[in-house]
Amino acid sequence: ASEGAALVFTTHHLDEAERLCSRVGILSSGELVAEGTVASLCSRLKWGEGGPHRLERLYRLHTGGEAVAA
Fold first, then answer.
1. Does the structure show a pLDDT above 70 at 61?
2. Which of 6, 41, 45, 50 has its CA 20 to 30 A from that of 59?
């Protein structure tokens, strides 16, 4: 990847986003409610590394919703 370049990748597959993306944003009702690396979002909540399914847990926390099933 070129320095200073960005790619916007949208998905409902949170495991895929966690595996492929260096930074994530969580949208709720069209508003950006969280943004950063998954590790930084977990550390802000004092989750440490966050364990398995950490992006799904972050999504549920920030939106109060259920992750979309694949």
1. yes
2. 6
Measured in whole angstroms, the distance separating CA 65 from the mean position of its chain's CA atoms is: 14
The answer to whether 18 touches 24, Cβ cutoff 8 Å, is: yes
Tokens of 36: 């950063």
Q: What angle do CA 21, 28, 37 make, to 5 degrees?
A: 25
Query: CA 57, 63, 69, 70 torsion: positive or negative?
Result: negative
Q: Say yes or no to pLDDT of 42 above 60.
A: yes
| Whole-number pLDDT of residue 69 | 45
Rounded Cα gap, residues 30 and 49, in angstroms? 28
pLDDT over threshold 70, residue 30: yes
- What H or E segment, with its residue span, contains residue 34? strand 31-36
